[in-house]
Amino acid sequence: MAVNVAIVGATGAVGQEFLTVLAQLRFPIKNLLLLASARSAGRKIEFAGNSYTVEELTKGSFKGIQIAFFSAGGAVSREFAPAAVEAGAVVIDNTSAFRMKEGVPLVVPEVNPEQIHKHNGLIANPNCSTIIMNVPVWPLHKANRVRRMVVSTYQAVSGAGAAGLRELEQQIKAYAAGGKIERALFPHQIVHNLFSHNSKIAPNGYNEEENKMVNETRKIFGDPRLMITATCVRVPVPRAHSEAINLEFERPMTPQQVREILARAPGVRIVDDPEKNYFPMPVEASGQDDVLVGRIRQDISREDGRGIDLFVSGDQVRKGAATNAVQIAQRLL
Amino acid sequence: MAVNVAIVGATGAVGQEFLTVLAQLRFPIKNLLLLASARSAGRKIEFAGNSYTVEELTKGSFKGIQIAFFSAGGAVSREFAPAAVEAGAVVIDNTSAFRMKEGVPLVVPEVNPEQIHKHNGLIANPNCSTIIMNVPVWPLHKANRVRRMVVSTYQAVSGAGAAGLRELEQQIKAYAAGGKIERALFPHQIVHNLFSHNSKIAPNGYNEEENKMVNETRKIFGDPRLMITATCVRVPVPRAHSEAINLEFERPMTPQQVREILARAPGVRIVDDPEKNYFPMPVEASGQDDVLVGRIRQDISREDGRGIDLFVSGDQVRKGAATNAVQIAQRLL
Q1: CA A14 – CA A36 distance, rounded (Å)
Q2: Number of H helices, E strands in chain A
Q3: Are residues B138 and B217 in the same domain?
């Protein structure tokens, strides 16, 4: 039962990754429609041995489409996703446009797959940092409710798309050649530096990325009382976000219990070898669909045994975006 | 009242910074003795317009020396510091050799200057990440006791000395030239990557750096009940450590109160402009003696108003090492 698939934003970093993941996961595609802005229309893209021409996205683009992956920014989703739904497609939207909207399932398949079939034409794919945190924390939360989380992120430049990756590359090359470091995308130099995540600061003092981690996790876990504070930081790493996660559970929890739960959790790979000082790293998480989890230890700042610290690393373009969306589509079929 | 000063480890990264800071802070030096291993003996080093020859460190090196700065590793301090003390010098030791020893003051001058004069010949300079955390947290702790802290670090490669800096430089240049990335010092690639701090993992699951932050802070603050959990991470930044700090106070605390306290705190500079997305960054903390503090906000994961989040950045070679030690020596005179 192959289906007709459209990719909106096909020429972007995540759009390109959609193609890679669709091929790797052998997603049953009948016809593939690649959509982008007028500027990118006409470009040729190879997929599974065939060449496809990128077409301009219009409200009439979606006739006969069954699944439409959107990844071209919130404004594009707000403008064109309703037209896709009206044409009969199920939209899996990678932007933040509809994530917090009531009636729109926000899904990490390892966490809340039962939400997928409640859609009204729209399913939202969560923020990348949120997904990477949710995959390892959810199985622990199910076993012993997490009351509060303190998370600090180490986020790769490609979280800002292909332009972010180019900016790091150009600055590295300029630095190595002794030249001037120029900025185009980020508000600050990224090579040899790091900075608070370059999203808008909300009235509560948190930036948008941090508020997404808080609010989306509550919706995905179905636990509006879950307390989270996050500090999101951009680091000079090309790909894969890392996160230091401090968890406060309802009841005591041991590192051994955490290891046992995570060892059988889907989408998780434990990388935790204290002897060799070998733990999750972005270079090893890149290109992987699993979230790497390590530094599993009892939080020594709590005497009641209810604290656990973790360090995780996950590919935010794959599991944090394309893979998660394709997994949603797989379950939809 | 100029004094005779010795620097042990004069050719290392911190040793070199000692010279810079001694000159900048116009430390009153009568005679300067530069000591290092036999391998470095004979090297010439310029200081304040004069050329000095590095001499080999021996137990007889310290005759007539009043202040000896040690920064050549714990083993060297353990072997030679007692000889310096015996010769009548006050040793200000930048290694971890004596930090937790009873009777040895462990001093951040902004925090516990009263400890300086309790020395028995030895004063310990704290770990760099500890100092950078202590400078902004102490004035808050004094106003409203901190019960618990959750800290995640973003540590520069020069925390591992000049060799760490060289390793990042070489890997950046190899990467830019399309060549093979080689490792010598760190257990993992550092360019385009980050990893859990490369110090030994203790039986409690924390690495040495993390345990230093916990235990040293308790000693410096004189508060053995202070609860801290830390996750220390090495990032591809040449200089200045950053830290995401979550604080739980005994009583409610507002961001406005924090700002007022930090605005008049010594050694702190507030860099906190949400409008411009401008907060502490390693490129701006490098070469500075102040610790930059920003992202000052109410922790939304606590409903009792007792939580505050901060993001800080400080030069770990200066305030985290050389500057702090020279400030101790200044107060000693």
Answers
A1: 12
A2: 8, 16
A3: yes
